[in-house]
Amino acid sequence: MDKLSTTSLFVSAATAIFVYWQSKTTQKMLQASTILKIQDNSIAKNISDKFDNIYCLKAFNSYENFKENTNENIIKDINEVVTHLNYCAQIVEEGLLPKQMIWNRYFWMYRSCGEKLLPWWIEHKQKNHPRKYSCFKRMCDEVLLVGDSEVKKHDNQKKNIYSNKNTIKKFYKNHQKIYKNLCFLVSGIVNKKFPK
Questions:
Q1: Which pTM value belongs to this model?
Q2: ∠ CA(92), CA(95), CA(101), 5° rounding?
Q3: How far apart are CA 7 and CA 60, in angstroms?
């Protein structure tokens, strides 16, 4: 292989690596934007406070019993919370956000909803619309399968990651150095190959 084809091969490989890195960065930016929109919607609709109505809900076996013994404003709040959580679950199912990103924010909401509202609440809502809140139901079912030991294990892993900020700073500094060196290297090769 001559010098020109070796250089071309190297430039192509470096470009492919750069494009891959850039696509991953773009994907992360889109995910961050999406999660911020979800968070803004949650704050605007006061989802956290409205969720308290679900958390404090007494046990019901039927929607009729629930409707008889529950204030109309609470019923409205529960609908808003479930609509929000259904939207989040739908985004995960469509592949726009990783499940863990939603679970980091709403895991306990899905679990409480699964314990308090399933199956009677969903069955009522799906009488006329069989697919209504189906993403929400699947996410609740999945969260209910996660055992307490798995939750504790995940929480401990998160504590270990965030407790050592210096390690995280070093990680990002190293990646920045690699990126800068790669850009410098590619620009140097291109300048040698195609002098101005």
A1: 0.73
A2: 45
A3: 71
